[in-house]
């Protein structure tokens, strides 16, 4: 049976308010029924009406269902139920009621139908000539958009980057033009470059570095017919060409116990994007799962940093396969700690990632045996005479320093070429996650 700690339960909360409300409900006096078995946890919580709310959790997801009217997922009742179990599982003694059986049976049936649909051969036969014509038209628009971007960047350099500080609107205008030319993958990176303007003394160097990355993509696209197939696949993806989920199921598929290394989520125009980083126990491979949600930070699958899960993953075709699609989810297992390579090995791996994917803006990085140091308003990770800049607010850094006791730790995060955004920290066990630190 998968047993989550209080800290791991908090990671599942949609926001800080839900955590606070759940803590207020995590008292047995507020519940008239509490039970659990190897598949589920359930309970009935007193509400404002005469009938208590029926709350149930499939622990292998974890997946939640509650009869309350809340639109948050999971709601405060589901979180409170798991918090109470983490505090004292001996209180959960009731036999499984019929309403829990019905819910679990429905989940199993839907999963079986989805698997059968996935394995069934597609009946739709695409018109190859029409598809080739559509692809040629899109490539033509993309070429025009990239040429326009190249001319625009050359103009900014020729006129002097300082004038960009007086024209903040130009970045959004150019980003919209990229979207219009079917290059959505470059729009948000361009906006991020615009956010660098005027930030710190070295901002011109950073802007030019990012312009160089975009210029490399423009040049590679112009030579696309000469690129190896997998390199062209990576470039198309970086430019915003959608990846079909079926592509991940037709290539390399790995089955392993995968440790959830870290989670990063960001919102743009009401679309939430989650990046989930995993490490295989037997294979040692690192995998990236990307999910999207509209309106709120609620995704189809729930994951807990530090949790180890039996998963089958299909990797998208790539010169350096990293992004994967979840094919099958099995039983959870006790958590672990990341395989900790030496700092030299981590740097070699990072160099290999960058060489194989020069237009990928984020790379996973695990730093073992480093210590936190605060220097000139910034946190650093220091080890073996090398220091890495961290994208870490002062308060979060102080909290992490306190939890580590100042001792060496293993940091996992996303490297953007200049700084590491820490997502998790480990010693003999997981001691900190970025998501957990954002909760009260």
Keywords:
440 residues; alpha+beta; OB fold (Dihydrolipoamide Acetyltransferase, E2P); 4 domains; six-stranded antiparallel beta sheet; five-stranded antiparallel beta sheet
Q: How would you explain this protein's 3D organization?
A:
This protein is an alpha+beta fold and 440 residues long. It folds into 4 domains: 6-112, no CATH class; 132-239; 245-333, OB fold (Dihydrolipoamide Acetyltransferase, E2P) (Beta Barrel); 343-437, OB fold (Dihydrolipoamide Acetyltransferase, E2P). 39% of the residues lie in helices and 26% in strands. The protein has helices at 6-11, 16-25, 76-87, 98-119, 128-159, 169-180, 184-196, 203-222, 229-239, 245-249, 343-356, 394-404, 434-437, and strands at residues 31-36, 40-45, 53-58, 63-66, 253-268, 271-280, 286-294, 308-315, 324-333, 363-375, 378-383, 386-389, 409-415, 420-426, 430-433. The strands form 3 sheets. The protein has a 6-stranded antiparallel sheet. Strands 7-6-5-8-9 form a 5-stranded antiparallel sheet. The longest helix has 32 residues, at 128-159. The chain is globular. The chain starts with 5 loop residues before the first helix and ends with a helix. The mean pLDDT is 87.
Q: What's the structural domain tally?
A: 4
Oligomer: single chain
- Rg estimate, integer Å: 24 Å
Spatial order of the strands forming the largest sheet: 12-11-10-13-14-15
Helicity, as a percent range: 25-40%
Total strands: 15
Average pLDDT for all residues: 87
Distance between the termini: 28 Å
Portion in beta strands = 25-35%
Low-pLDDT residue spans: none
Shape: globular
How many strands, what sense, and barrel or not for the largest sheet?
6 strands, antiparallel
Structural class: alpha+beta
Order of SSEs: HHEEEEHHHHHHHHEEEEEHEEEHEEEH
Tally the helices: what do you get? 13
């Amino acid at each position: 049976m998968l047993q989550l700690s209080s800290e791991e339960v908090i990671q599942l909360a949609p926001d800080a308010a839900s955590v606070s409300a759940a803590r207020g409900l995590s008292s047995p006096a507020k519940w008239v029924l509490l039970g659990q078995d190897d598949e589920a946890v359930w309970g009935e919580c007193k509400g404002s009406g005469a009938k208590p709310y029926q709350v149930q959790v499939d622990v292998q997801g974890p997946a939640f269902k509650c009869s309350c009217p809340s639109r948050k997922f999971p709601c405060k009742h589901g979180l409170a139920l798991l918090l109470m179990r983490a505090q004292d599982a001996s209180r959960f003694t009731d036999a499984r009621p019929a309403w829990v059986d019905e819910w679990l049976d429905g989940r199993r049936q839907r999963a079986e139908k989805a698997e059968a649909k996935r394995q069934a051969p597609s009946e739709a036969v695409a018109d190859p000539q029409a598809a080739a014509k559509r692809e040629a038209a899109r490539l033509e628009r993309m070429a025009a958009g990239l040429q326009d971007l190249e001319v625009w960047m050359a103009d900014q350099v020729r006129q002097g980057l300082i004038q960009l500080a007086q024209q903040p609107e130009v970045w959004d205008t150019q980003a919209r033009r990229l979207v219009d030319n079917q290059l959505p993958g470059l729009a948000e990176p361009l906006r991020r470059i615009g956010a660098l303007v005027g930030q710190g003394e070295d901002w011109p160097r950073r802007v030019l570095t990012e312009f160089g990355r975009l210029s490399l993509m423009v040049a590679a696209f112009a030579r696309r017919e000469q690129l190896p197939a997998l390199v062209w696949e990576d470039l198309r993806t970086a430019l915003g060409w959608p990846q079909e989920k079926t592509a991940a199921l037709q290539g390399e598929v790995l089955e392993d116990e995968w440790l959830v290394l870290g989670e990063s989520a960001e919102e743009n125009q009401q679309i939430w994007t989650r990046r989930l980083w995993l490490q295989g126990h037997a294979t040692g491979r690192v995998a990236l799962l990307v999910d999207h949600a509209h309106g709120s930070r609620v995704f189809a699958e729930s994951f807990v940093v530090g949790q180890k899960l039996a998963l089958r993953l299909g990797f998208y075709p790539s010169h350096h396969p990293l992004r994967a699609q979840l094919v099958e989810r099995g039983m959870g297992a006790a958590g672990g700690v990341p395989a900790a390579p030496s700092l030299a090995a981590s740097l070699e791996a990072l160099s290999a990632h960058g060489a194989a994917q020069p237009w990928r803006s984020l790379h996973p990085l695990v730093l073992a045996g480093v210590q936190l140091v605060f220097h000139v308003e910034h946190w650093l990770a220091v080890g073996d005479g090398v220091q890495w800049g961290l994208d870490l607010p002062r308060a979060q850094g102080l909290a992490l320093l306190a939890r580590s006791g100042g001792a060496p730790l293993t940091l996992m995060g996303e490297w953007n070429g200049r700084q590491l955004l820490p997502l998790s920290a480990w010693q003999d066990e997981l001691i900190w996650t970025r998501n957990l630190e954002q909760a009260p």
